[in-house]
Write a structure and sequence with these properties.
The complex is a heterodimer of chains A (about 150) and B (about 400). Chain A is α+β, with helices and mostly antiparallel strands. Chain A has 5 helices and 3 strands. The longest helix of chain A is centred in the C-terminal third of the chain and has 22 residues. In chain B, the strands form 3 sheets. A 7-stranded mixed sheet of chain B has the order 2-8-7-6-5-3-4, sandwiched between helices. In chain B, strands 9-10-12 form a 3-stranded antiparallel sheet. A two-stranded parallel sheet of chain B has the order 1-11. The chains are: A alpha+beta (about 150), B alpha/beta (about 400). Chains A and B meet through helix 1, strand 2, strand 3 and helix 2 of A and helix 10 and helix 15 of B.
Chain lengths: ~150, ~400
């Protein structure tokens, strides 16, 4: 059996939404190079809807696939829905990730959250701080797993 | 699509001669070498021929060769045996290097938990220890020095003969994990002053599951697998006769072709190294001199190794990496870290290990594919983006 599902390999080999948005409304970056994973998400937002999203990722196959899948899942969605995206949903949409790769899906969830927070901060929009816990990144591996 | 197998430090394909040597012992000569009847004794003869052949390739006496299941078992038995023999005399200090194979490192770490002390010698930026370092580390209570013959990741060949001489002079047992060396470079246990040596068949076109431990005559070797009197009471269990005969054949073949293979592989290796060094911000890991003929190990800044491997695999190229993601832990390769590479660089490593079955075309395909894949990954890497914008400092020139 291969390490990754066909879905993961598809999103790794042909990643969707790769790139940058120069005039992004919100940018989120989580992880660090020392640990081997950095995800950077760029959002374009109109009327509380994500009209465009791009990503740049330094990381393994599942990190790239998680970024690709997560950006697909929030594209065209209202911010309220994007904020509900969980790492588990990303992993499930990829037909599962190996247990030791689940943190990649956590990074995707956190990167999106961080980009939305950045948008709120830039616009001076009030938000419920409890919705934006400090990203765990790689340090604690605090994630939902089946 | 043709598969280019370039992960021969992990394992090799069996040679035709090795397969031919194995076949008779699977069906025709299936007797147990411990049995008295002709079927058993025929197998026993083959076993002893294999022992003599392997001894011959290492300049060892056949009685100094003990068959095991492979390199890890040989390492475990050699180290633990020396530790236990040393402890009886109050010697509970072990000297090794920071970049040994885990079969050695984990055994030593476990002994530390059991009350032994260990010194892990640094290997410098190029991946070499010196005999001087070993000499300075030896104490009156040193039970064992264990230094690998050649490193499995970066291919650096250690000054084994000089280290052996230092140990001999100090009266300390010297073991070497020669799993990456035997069959690839000349190994002579007498000239190299080696007391114990581990080897593994599947690294030189022999089968998996067969290995040997050389233990110099007169040196006590402890038994860890209890049972029958096989291997002169040092390792119980019915012998893997087919595997052992194939190992002997593979080793004879490797030694006979060594000179020719070394010349051809060194040229291929250097071609790949020079080709890949053209990639901006790349580096060769481990010194170029005294390097295994078939080992290439490089780092490419701004990318992570697993993605590199997956893309190469999609292009039919099998290689390996020292990135954390391929090691199953958060830390990248302990070997690259021992060379002093920062984590973020070590994550972007690629090891290409050739064998005589690789061709010039394989080398060309690798030189073409790797830069493409590195570019593809750099183009989506936020780290590379920052490096290019000058927001992050390049660590590789």
């Amino acid at each position: 059996m291969a390490l990754y599902s066909e879905k993961v390999m598809d999103h790794f080999t042909n990643p969707r939404n790769v790139g940058k948005i120069e005039d992004a409304d919100g940018i989120g970056e989580v992880g660090n190079a020392k640990c081997g994973d950095i995800m950077k998400i760029y959002l374009k937002i109109e009327n509380d809807v994500i009209t465009d999203v791009k990503f740049n990722t330094f990381g393994c196959g599942s990190a790239i696939a998680s970024s690709s899948m997560a950006t697909e899942m929030i594209k065209g969605k209202p911010l309220s829905q994007a904020l509900e995206l969980t790492n588990k949903a990303v992993a499930e949409a990829l037909d599962g990730l190996p247990a030791h790769k689940m943190h990649c899906s956590v990074l995707a969830e956190e990167a999106i959250r961080s980009a939305i927070k950045d948008y709120y901060d830039r616009r001076g929009i009030a938000y419920d701080k409890s919705q934006f816990p400090e990203p765990h990144g790689e340090e604690e591996h605090n994630f939902e797993e089946d | 699509m043709k598969t280019i197998y370039a992960d021969n430090a992990a394992t090799t394909a069996m040679s035709d001669a090795a397969i031919r040597a194995m076949m008779p012992y699977l069906k025709e000569v299936y007797g147990n070498p411990s049995s008295l009847h002709t079927a058993g004794q025929t197998a026993k003869e083959a076993l002893e021929r294999a022992r003599a052949d392997i001894g011959g390739c290492l300049n060892a006496d056949p009685r100094e060769i003990y068959f095991t299941s492979g390199g890890s078992e040989s390492d475990n038995q050699a180290i633990r045996s020396c530790a236990e023999n040393g402890a009886v005399k109050g010697k509970k200090h072990i000297i090794t290097t920071a970049f040994e194979h885990h079969a050695v490192l984990h055994t030593v770490k476990k002994l530390e938990k059991e009350g032994f002390e260990a010194t892990y010698l640094g290997v410098g930026a190029d991946g070499f220890v010196t005999a001087e370092q070993v000499k300075n580390a030896i104490r009156p209570d040193t039970a064992l020095v264990t230094v690998m013959y050649a490193n499995n990741e970066v291919g650096t060949i250690q000054p084994i003969r000089e280290i052996g001489a230092v140990c001999r002079q100090a009266g300390v047992v010297f073991h070497t994990d020669a799993v990456q060396a035997v069959g690839h470079i000349p190994v002579d246990v007498k000239a190299d002053n080696i007391d114990m040596l581990s080897l593994s068949a599947h690294k030189f076109h022999g089968p998996k599951g067969a290995g040997a431990l050389y233990c110099r005559r007169g040196l006590p070797l402890k038994t860890f697998i209890e049972g029958g009197a096989q291997e002169r009471g040092r390792r119980a269990g019915t012998e893997n006769i087919g595997g052992i005969c194939a190992m002997a054949e593979a080793l004879k073949e490797a030694c006979a072709g060594m000179k020719e293979n070394t010349a051809r592989l060194t040229a291929l290796r250097d071609k790949i190294i020079d080709g890949l060094l053209k990639i901006p911000h790349s580096r060769l890991n481990g010194g170029r001199e005294n390097r295994l003929p078939a080992n290439v190990n490089m780092c490419f800044e701004g990318i992570e190794g697993e993605g590199l491997l997956l893309h190469l695999d999609a292009r039919g190229i099998c290689a390996s990496s020292g990135s954390a993601c391929t090691s199953g832990s958060l830390d990248p390769s302990h070997v690259l870290l021992a060379l002093g590479l920062p984590h973020e660089i070590a994550h972007g490593s690629l090891r290409i290990s050739l064998s005589e079955y690789n061709t010039e075309e394989d080398a060309d395909a690798i030189i073409k594919a790797v830069p493409e894949v590195v570019k593809l990954l750099r183009d989506m890497s936020p780290v590379w983006d920052e490096l290019e914008k000058g927001q992050r400092k390049h660590l590789i020139k």
